[in-house]
Amino acid sequence: MLLTITNTRIPADDLSYLLHKHPGKIQSVETSAGKAHIFYPEVSREKCTAALLLDIDPVGLVRKAGPKGNDFALEQYVNDRPYVCSSFMSAAIAKAYSSALNGRCKDKPALVDELLPLSAKLSVLPVRGGEKLLKSLFEPLGYTIIATQHPLDPAFPEWGDGRYYTVELSNIITLRQLLSHLYVLIPVCDNDKHYWIGKDEIDKLLEKGGEWLPGHPENELITRRYLKHQRSLANEALEILVKKEDPVDEDGSEAGEDRAAEEVSEVPKPRIHDQRLQTAKDELLMAGAKRVLDLGCGEGKLLKLLLAEKQFELVMGMDVSYRSLEIAKDKLKIDRLPERQRQRIQLIQGSLTYRDKRLEGFDGAALVEVIEHLDEPRLASLERAVFEYAQPGVVVVTTPNEEYNVKFENIQQGQMRHSDHRFEWTRKEFEAWAAGIAVRYNYDVIFKTIGEVDPEVGSLSQMAVFSRPVKNAQGII
Ligand code: SAH
Q1: Structure confidence at residue 217 (pLDDT)
Q2: Mutate to test the pocket of ligand 1, among 373, 399, 419, 420 (most ligand atoms within 8 A of CB)
Q3: Which of 257, 320, 358, 424 to mutate to test the pocket of ligand 1 (most atoms within 8 A of CB)?
Q4: In which region does residue 219 sit, left (phi positive, over 0), alpha (psi from -120 to 50) or beta (all else)?
Q5: By Cβ atoms counted within 10 A, which residue in 181, 266, 304, 385 is the most buried?
């Protein structure tokens, strides 16, 4: 059985660096089910395809599995396993492409997080549940699917179609994400119940699916099928997966923040996250911006507020998470908006750590509670992407004020407000970062508070507003 992966972003042979496999050689690795061969049917600057061919040894498989009590003896030898993509292909992906699957790239480490136009072709994939299932598994992850169903036997068309498909999946995605999706979802499509699994499969599922499975609408079906319908294993995995889910409240405020705000004040205050969004919108309005960006827009709360203001002629939301964008699209009811409104809103997938021409030419941008979701070393790339390349006229950035955490009863010392925060800054740290940007990219910056202000530790959330220095009539700053 064959899996090919194609990259079409120039230089397309970056794929070979990511896979740690030389494009000029055929390489082979042993897997538990047989030999996996890796080779490149096509390598050019424009297009590069890597193939993983798994040559299953059917007799070896039976010997390894040992005698199976009541099984129909011949079925052990005569079955579809050597000819289809199944969990054996997942095992081959893990063995042959282990560095790529684990997000390592020795020679070009920056490639690991690059969103690439990738497509994967699975030559024969058994799908119990047909095209509908394929779509429900892959579409929420942003894939376009072409599925070709094969007849049971071309010589007897009256027998109808079988459960075997050739599947082509395309997406703009990192290679690591693509491999982790294939690793988990190939056996889920196959849904073969004929092999024993152990507890370590839970770990594999959480390791490969931990980032995307909690937010996947079919996470329960995926978990149950992946764990071969072993109820106790599936329940255990689901418990961990659900716990891992974003602790952001329905309204986007983060664990504990609102409770703390209520404790400090008797009078009910607007929820802290609403305050952030409102303040960001007001800053963009006051700056007179017409074309605005919401960078790291998440599920579209700010976009909704921005769309309600006539001043904003174009509102573009960008996020790295396709799933969040889908939710935003639903919540904003984009498909049902009248044409003129529809023209004012655009949602794009992308990463703030790369230069993106689509972000150029805007008057204003907001990054509400976004920077703390990036690893600190990646902030330098975000800085360049936003302030050096996109260069919006005004940029509003909000982030938690770490000093205020002592006021949260449910946050221990040293703990952060949200499991996905990579850092939280004191006022000094945030101000130093912002001041550096202002100098490097020629912006003015002022700082504002958001939420309750404590005389000692400052406000709940902090905000920097960057703007281009005003020139006088002679163009002198
Ligand atoms: N601004 C939104 C969401 C904040 S949560 C709100 O205030 O409600 C942080 C968001 O940043 C998430 O949606 C996450 O997917 C997004 N994000 C994280 N890293 C990103 C990156 N490198 N590029 C773009 N978006 C990113």
Answers
A1: 86
A2: 373
A3: 320
A4: alpha
A5: 181
Ligand 1 binding pocket includes 353 (Cβ within 6 Å): yes
Co-location of 105 and 189 in the same domain? yes
The number of distinct structural domains making up the chain is: 2
Q: Which atom of ligand 1 is nearest to the CA of 273?
A: 7
The reply to whether 248 falls in a domain is no
Q: 50 with 126, same domain?
A: yes
Question: Quick one: 163 and 307 in the same domain?
Answer: no
Residues of the chain with pLDDT under 50: 69, 244-252, 255, 259-269
Same domain, 288 and 430: yes
Residue nearest to atom 7 of ligand 1 (CA): 368
Instruction: Tell whether 204 is covered by a domain.
Output: no
Q: Are 61 and 194 in contact (CB under 8 A)?
A: no
Residue found by looking up tokens 């690793």 in the block:
183
Q: What is the pLDDT of residue 352?
A: 92
The sheet carrying 364-368 orders its strands as 345-349, 314-319, 291-295, 364-368, 394-400, 458-467, 444-454
Separation of 309 CA from ligand 1 center, angstroms? 22
Q: Residue 223 falls within a domain, yes or no? A: no
Q: What is the domain extent for residue 442?
A: 257-467
Question: Does residue 296 lie in a domain region?
Answer: yes
Tell which of 195, 222, 243 closes a domain: 195
Distance 131 CA to ligand 1 centre (A): 32
Distance (Å, whole) CA 477 – CA 475:
6
Residue 172 and residue 270 in one domain: no
| Residue labelled with tokens 């902090």 | 462
Judgement on whether residues 149 and 266 belong to the same structural domain of the protein: no
| Residue 244 confidence (pLDDT) | 44
* pTM, to two decimals: 0.54
